[in-house]
Amino acid sequence: MQVKRRSLQRRITLYLVSIIIFFGLLATIATYNLTKNTILNQAKVNLSSDVHSQSREGYQLLSQSRDLAHIISSQPRIINYYDESYKGQVLLPDATYLESYNVGNEFSSIFLLDSKGITLFATDSRFVGQNYSYRDYFKAGMDNKSYVAVAVGTTTNELGYYFSSPIVVNNVVKGVVVLKMRPESLRNILSTYATDNRIVTLVDQYGVVIYSSDGNKANHSLGPLNEASITALKNDRRIEGETPIPMDYSIIQADLDIIGDTTHSYNISDRYDSVEEVVAISKIVDFPFFVLNEVETSYLYQPAINSAAVVATIVIVAAIIVAMTISILIMRFLKPVKQLHEFANKISQNSQEEISLDIQTGDELEDLGKAFVLMSSNIKQSYAQIESKVEERTHELSQINKLMIDRELKMIELKKEIQKLKGSK
Fold first, then answer.
1. Nearest Cα to 149, choosing from 259, 81, 232, 251?
2. Three-state DSSP class for 166?
């Protein structure tokens, strides 16, 4: 059975193209991994920078509100009203007066509490007469402390950011001023950073989502909540009924106590969303809130995929061009080889026709062609000499044969003469 052989041209082309594709594949993988790691690191830097900026902007808004609560609590009109020993004319710190501090309408309500937690004056009339002595912002104020937290109002049933400051008269806390900031004030700052590919989320000290540009994260927490956190959230009316649904950010939730003003970044395999994510988080300075940004790695890796695709395309095109170039070069290289092959075949067949070989490559092949021509000439000379000797020997043998025949004829005649002589006797 004859084995089908591949031509030299095909084998060389196949080997070289295979080498190009192999190393091209390695280059593609290396390019993808290098670009991916570079993009991932840069994404972490960018996210961290943006989260830091968001926390700073949030801090400015929250600190202004906290400072405003302190300013209001220290106003003479309010101090005089709470000072029972004051003998001058007392101007009531009524709703109109309190509303004058609500510049930009950032607060849904500003109200004053007495030492028993009863609302004396408020920009929202629904608050007047209500007892809020059970609320943490009142308790902190009566302890002569400022207070900031997010909670759902028992009167309005609306979420808000509460800022309280004690009203101190003669070193004695006589009441508390409370500002309830609308949640959209902080939300508007954070939402400017949200995009189709970036989710911006605000969580409290328990890891419970206050705001997220992804509406699906409402009523969720970064991870499972402990009993103490659940109790505190119920007291603030942050949760009603079911506890927040934990997401797959337990590692971040566990780090909330150690995350300070500096940003932290994480690579998260989010089983809740079934995606790989890069997450950056930063605390809003000394407030109990954290800003969190997350981006899917599939979006980040797209440039790396594009770069790898470009490299792969270049490799494929290069392989095609190299294959064509090699084929052309090998055809040109094999042409004199084929001439030598045909020349050798004719020599082996002892062809009597005139054999010509014209190889002009200027290299070793041309020298080899000349050697073939010289060999052919020598072979022809050898053939000629052999034929000449064979012809000469044949002629000699022919002469000898003729002499032998003449001798035999003479012997036969001689024998006949002898017979005749014997018969005549």
1. 232
2. strand
DSSP assignment letter at 105: G
| Measured distance CA(98)–CA(236) in Å, rounded | 25
Distance CA(240)–CA(231), nearest Å, equals: 11
Rg of the chain in Å (alpha carbons): 53
| Alpha-carbon gap, residue 425 to 417, rounded angstroms | 13
Going from the C-alpha of 349 to that of each of 352, 371, 391, the distances in angstroms are 9, 19, 22
Name the helix (H) or strand (E) containing 40. helix 8-73
Per-residue model confidence as pLDDT tens digits over 107-119: 999 999 999 999 9
Asked whether the beta carbons of 174 and 184 are under 8 A apart, the reply is no
Strand partners, 149: 162
Q: Is 324 exposed, middle or buried (0-12, 13-18, 19+ CB in 10 A)?
A: exposed
Burial class of residue 366 in the structure, from the number of CB atoms within 10 Å of its CB (0-12 exposed, 13-18 middle, 19+ buried): middle
243-269 burial, b at 16+ Cβ within 10 Å, e below that, comes to ebebbbbeebbeebeeeeeebbbbebe
Taking the CB of residue 89, how many other CB atoms lie within 10 A of it? 6
Token output for 215 = 């509406």
Q: Is 70 in contact with 97 (CB distance < 8 Å)? A: no
Q: Residue 289: exposed, middle, or buried by beta-carbon count in 10 A (0-12, 13-18, 19+)?
A: buried
> First vs last Cα of the chain: how many Å apart?
83
Residues 68, 179: contact at Cβ < 8 Å? yes
Residue type, 366: E
How far, in Å, CA of 267 to CA of 36, rounded? 13
1 pLDDT band (50/70/90 cuts)?
A: very low
Helix segments in 349-363, DSSP class H: none
Q: Which of 229, 101, 208 is nearest to 165 (CA)?
A: 101
List pLDDT tens digits, range 338-390: 766 676 777 666 655 556 666 666 677 667 767 767 777 777 777 778 878 88
Q: Show the tokens assigned to 33.
A: 């991994």
